[in-house]
């Protein structure tokens, strides 16, 4: 059953040291910045973070990295024009890095959520990122065996939740959110707004409530709602 | 493909200089059949969109979860929840749809896109692609969606200058940089020539500001004329 | 689980007869924790829904693509586009969501459902389930979602009469019918007793209209009392 | 590019003898009855049909079976109270049958659409339906290797299409449609209504246009539209 939390601190209170944390977002779109900030305050450390990028600028995931809480980063694209925090940690040998092709990253989390033990992907075959992995030819095409990536916690940024935890997203901020929500033991979601159950169109729900453990409303709309 | 498919012999445009970046993009756009579903890689390939005819019916895919992507957003159009894979704010066209990352890369990996246009460091005669890593020991590896894109379209087109700044050719007998994909490139659009590559070797389709013979003299790969 | 988790010894209800079909459904409903996500298999398990308290917060999943399924549709409510897995017209509750078959079975296979209730031909002491095929040579094999359901919930409950019409027990040392799943059943609810099964063997939790000793005498499997 | 067809006959005109045809629907919900009727008129034979059931009553898929056009049926649940057509053919040895657990059926088609070479599923392990298949233990759980099911043609029943071919479905009639649309070379869809592009909410599109080759409006709404 989904818990509607009063604030982000309550939502992330029990994240344990050493957890694997799936962090939504593609760049800053869909990045659950309030949850990450709360996680920094909460203090969990020695984390493995799975996210498409390794932080942008100095906020969100970059701030978590800067706080020294991340032991290992699993991502597709750490190196960006504004990824100076990660770059510094990496060059100083202070963080481990596993680079995964973006589609394999998404599919490996989908597999974790869908109970698939492993799958053969054509992506990365013959490249350094497939080294040491099992390879098989199926129907004339070569594939590499990829395994699920499961999170202890997923931090997801969505648009609107109903009180049961059903979620809709907004435009390309959807990105990794729906997949990560299925792949973690505990899924924690920040939204711009929580609405009454029955308000969302059942045909348009993207993440069904079964995947959502905690929801917190953040930002302008939430503050307004609180004040009213 | 359109224009090039009607070629029955190699065309040498020696009455002009090499293609400018814009002209390269225009030539690629010319060769994308109307109604195609197309992914334009980050950087130079993005420019191809500017040369697609308004009535071409080409639908652009961006791997961060959208079909029907419109031009870059300007002014009030800018919405941080709506970006392309390069994290540049873009717009939405009528008939667009949004989907999550696993679905987006399933679309790609499943071979549903007609055309993908990518930049490259090197392409081999057999169509191997190197475009994600220079192999420099101090470089932070970052692959993003490159490996998924490389194997994820019916036609994979590369756009690059034919020669690096130091004069070395980027169309090579075998890639020396780490591979992105094996035998995945169909055509290479460069400033001085358009090539077909693959298991049949390298065929020159068009040249710009250079003759076939002069081109052959500058490359280490065996070339063929069309209909040789 | 609820009521049964508070048991600290086997309860023998010898002051009454065996459970009726409705009573069996009521006992199963009693043991489903509030707020659970539950799939009720075709046939007898469907009846469990009638005994879930209105305020239980239990959300019903139907594998043909819905969470938040309501009661059977009557009269004007009947909509041929809205059925349960048994193809019976049903209704939609507030907070419902629809999803396609691959997503629906990913939800199941991924272990996101809390409880699944199934009918059975046989259950073994170790929790093997046989409920899809009698093994009769002329029977047309038809499995539906039975094998997916069998392995697809945190708790798999079976509802069945303990004895077949010919008097043979359906809780057996090893299934003689073709298996649906291996070691997948957690509890077996029958007209005369509720059992816990699995790698620890068979524990009798409750009896109805029969004593523990009489029950033990009628079964070929070794039984244990709770807290033996 | 999606073609809006005038009628169902035009839509299925080129289905070849010997094709593998994926047929949507769960029972009659989402069953593309008009497309199947057109396929019967068209005459294609020696078909392999992949569908959840093997026909209900005497219409739709059952009529195709009765016309003797189906050599082989791949489904999860052929045996139903109203599957007399299939039952008769099967007992007369006039049709081959492959029974696949419903979730594996959906996931195998999803794999075909998503470019996955094969995947390890926990469903069916230790049962007759996994006999002869590769089995592997991963992280302490046993899985069976399942391969993609790809169609030459998919016949899908959806609710509304826009002129580009984006689709939305209605309630549990969604079922196999979105998955099958991704898994076939040619996807043909019947809808109740075709609307102008831009009418559907891009956040709520279930099947993006890239998966749809032909659309035909059928039924009362379509006839009304034609008359007006």
UniProtKB/TrEMBL annotation, chains A, D:
Keywords assigned by UniProt, alphabetized: Transferase
Residue runs in coiled coils: none
Signal peptide location: none
Top-level division of the source organism's lineage: Bacteria
Keyword Transferase applies: yes
Cross-referenced Gene3D superfamilies: Glutaconate Coenzyme A-transferase
Family: Belongs to the 3-oxoacid CoA-transferase subunit A family.
NCBIfam families given in the database record: pcaI_scoA_fam (TIGR02429)
Official protein name in the record: 3-oxoacid CoA-transferase subunit A
Automatic annotation (TrEMBL), chains B, C:
Organism: Nocardioides koreensis
Pfam family, one: CoA_trans
Matching SMART domains: CoA_trans
Domain of life of the native organism: Bacteria
Signal sequence bounds: none
Keyword annotations: Transferase
Gene3D superfamilies attached to this UniProt entry: Glutaconate Coenzyme A-transferase
Name this protein carries in UniProt: 3-oxoacid CoA-transferase subunit B
Membership in a protein family: Belongs to the 3-oxoacid CoA-transferase subunit B family.
């Amino acid at each position: 059953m989904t818990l509607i939390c009063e604030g982000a601190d309550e939502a992330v209170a029990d994240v344990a040291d050493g957890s694997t944390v799936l962090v939504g977002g593609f760049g800053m779109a869909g990045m659950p910045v309030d949850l990450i900030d709360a996680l920094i305050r909460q203090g969990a450390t020695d984390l493995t973070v799975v996210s498409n990028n390794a932080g942008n600028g100095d906020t969100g995931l970059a701030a978590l990295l800067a706080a020294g809480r991340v032991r290992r980063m699993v991502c597709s694209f750490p190196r960006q024009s504004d990824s100076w925090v990660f770059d510094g940690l990496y060059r100083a040998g202070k963080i481990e890095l596993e680079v995964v092709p973006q589609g394999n990253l998404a599919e490996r989390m989908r597999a974790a959520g869908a109970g698939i033990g492993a799958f053969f992907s054509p992506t990365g075959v013959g490249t350094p990122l497939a080294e040491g992995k099992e390879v098989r030819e199926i129907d004339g095409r070569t594939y590499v065996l990829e395994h699920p990536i499961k999170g202890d916690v997923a931090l997801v940024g969505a648009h609107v939740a109903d009180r049961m935890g059903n979620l809709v997203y907004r435009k390309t901020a959807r990105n990794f959110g729906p997949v990560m929500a299925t792949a973690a033991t505990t899924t924690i979601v920040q939204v711009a707004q929580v609405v009454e159950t029955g308000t969302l169109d059942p045909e348009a729900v993207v993440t069904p409530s079964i995947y959502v453990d905690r929801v917190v409303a953040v930002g302008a709309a939430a503050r307004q709602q609180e004040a009213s | 493909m359109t224009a090039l498919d009607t070629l029955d012999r190699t065309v040498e445009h020696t009455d002009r200089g090499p293609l400018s970046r814009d002209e390269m993009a225009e030539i690629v756009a010319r060769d994308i059949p109307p109604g195609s579903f197309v992914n334009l890689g980050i950087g130079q390939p993005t420019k191809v969109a500017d040369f697609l005819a308004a009535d071409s019916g080409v639908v652009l895919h961006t791997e961060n979860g959208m079909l029907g992507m419109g031009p870059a957003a300007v002014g009030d159009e800018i919405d941080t929840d709506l970006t392309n894979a390069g994290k540049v704010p873009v717009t939405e066209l009528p008939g667009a749809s949004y989907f999550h990352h696993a679905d987006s890369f399933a679309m790609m990996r499943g071979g549903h896109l007609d055309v993908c246009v990518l930049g490259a460091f090197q392409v081999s005669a057999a169509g191997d692609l190197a475009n994600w890593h220079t192999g420099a020991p101090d470089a932070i590896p970052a692959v993003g969606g490159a490996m998924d894109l490389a194997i994820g379209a019916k036609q994979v087109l590369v756009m690059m200058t034919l020669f690096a700044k130091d004069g070395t050719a980027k169309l090579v007998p075998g890639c020396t940089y780490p591979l992105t994909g094996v035998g995945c490139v169909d055509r290479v659009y460069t400033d001085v020539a358009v090539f077909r590559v693959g298991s049949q070797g390298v065929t020159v389709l068009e040249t710009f500001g250079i003759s076939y013979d002069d081109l052959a003299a500058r490359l280490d790969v065996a070339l063929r004329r069309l209909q040789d």
